[in-house]
Amino acid sequence: MTWMQRTEVLVRGAFVITMAGCRDARSHTAPAATHGVIADGAVHLRDGEIINVGSFAELAAAAPEVQVVGDGTGVVIPGLVNTHTHLSEALATGMGSELSLFEWGTRIIGPLSAALSAELAREGTALRAVEMLLSGVTCVNDMFVHTAEGSLASLGVVDGLEAAGLRGIVSYGAEDITGLDATGDPQRVLEVAAVVAEQYALAQRCESSELVSFRWGIGTLLGQSDELLSEAVSQCSSHGWGVHTHLAEVREELVLANARWGRRTIAHAENIGLLDQPLVAGHAIWISEAEIDTLATHQVGVAHNPVANMILGSGVCPVTALRHRGVAVGIGTDGAASNDSQDMLQAVKSAALLQKVNARDPWVMDAYDALEMATIGGARALGLDDRIGSLEVGKRADVVLLQDSVDIAVLHDPVSQVVYGASPRAVAAVFVDGRQVVADHRCRSIEEAEQVARCRPLAAALAAESGLARDGFSLYRGQL
Ligand SMILES: [Zn+2]
Predict the structure, then answer these.
(1) Domains of the chain
(2) What is the whole-number distance in angstroms between the Cα of residue 157 and the centre of ligand 1?
(3) Which residues have CB less than 5 Å away from ligand 1 (the ion)?
(4) Which residues pair with 401 in a beta bridge?
C-alpha cells in the first residue's frame, strides 16, 4: 500500500491529548495534562476523517479488525499547524543569519527572489516539507516571495506540498516597490498587473488541489504601492479570499508607515479595509493596547514566531494580552531570513520560554497554552478550526504519534513532555487527511536522502546564479 491511500487505523498512545474544548480552570501546580487527555487512548481514522476518540480498550473492542499504529507507550497529538513560513527561502538557509531583517531583505531576498523558479520552489518545498512532517507539522501557512516576473514560481510550492502530502495554505507575497527607505522615493520592482496575475494563477492552481488552498499575500504593507494594496482589498472582497501578511514586526515599520501615511500600519490596514478581510498577520510585536483591541475587533489571526523574533532581536509579541482579548494566536517557524530551521517543536518550546523570561514569571504561559497555540489556536488563526487542530469526531484525520525515543520516554505529564522534551526523533507516525506520510520515524511521501541529494546542487546553483556566492553568503562557490 502506498502512502497515497488512506488507511483505516487506530492510533494508540499511553496518552491522547485531544486539545478539544477550552480549559475552564487552570492549576499550575498540578500536571497540565488534566484537560482533554485520555490515558491509554486511541483515535480511530477512516476515509480521512476522525470517527472515534476514546479509550483504546473501547475502540479496539468496537473495531477489532482495524490495524493499530502505536504500541501504547507514546503520546498522540493533533497535527501541528505551522502558521507562518516562507518556502521561497527553503534553499537559502544559513545565508546572512546575523543580518537585520531590513539588511536581509535588501542583500539576500532581492537577489534570491529574482533567481527563483517553479522548479526550485517545488524542490525546496519538498525538502522543507520533510523537515516539517518530521517535527509533527500537518498544515503549513506559507508566503512565497519572488520577483522573477512571469515565472509563476510560487505555483511550484503547491506541487511540492502535494508531493509531500502536507496540508497547506499558499500565498504570493511579492512587493511591487522597494518601500523601506524613508529618505528616497520608492522604486518599482514589479508591475501591479504582474503581481495580480500571479495571485490569480496561484488561486486557480489551488482550485484543483485537494489539500492546498489560497490566500492573497502581502509581504509587507510598506513594500506595496497604494494601488496594489487597494487591489488586494477589492479582489479579496469580491472573491472571499483571506490575506496573509506581516504586521508590526520591527520598530522601523512604524516610523516608515508614519512617514508615508501619517499613521501606523495597523491603523492604515484598518483605514483601507484590509482588516475587514479574513487576515492572518505574522508577528504583531510592536503593537499598542488599542491596536490589540483593533485586531480583536476585526478577528485578525496572529502568527507568533518566537525563534525568528529572538534570532532577529525583533522584540516580544504580547501573546498573553492578545489571547486574553480573544485574538487567535498560532505559532510559526518563519523562514530562513529569521529561522534556519523548520523544526516546529523548537518553535513550540520557544513560545513558552520567551514569554516566561520576558515576564520573569514561569506561570505566564504553560505547556498547555503553547500546545494549544500550536494546534487549535493556529487552526483558528487560519479559519480552519472546524476541520483541523484537535482530535474530535468529524475533523480531518491530521494526527501525530510521538513514541520510541528517550525524549518522550518519561510521561509524568505528557503535555509538558511534548512541549519541553520532544524533538523530531520522537515523531514516529504522522497522518495528514488520513494518509500515513510518516511511518517508523521515516517520511514515506518524500525519500529524505534522495531529496537532500537533489537539492544540494540546486542550492549551489541558486547561490551562484543569484550572485550570493560571489558576495560571500555561500561557501558553495563553484561546487556544482
Ligand atoms: Zn515572515
Answers:
(1) 9-79+390-443 (2.30.40.10), 80-381 (3.20.20.140)
(2) 16
(3) 282, 334
(4) 76, 429
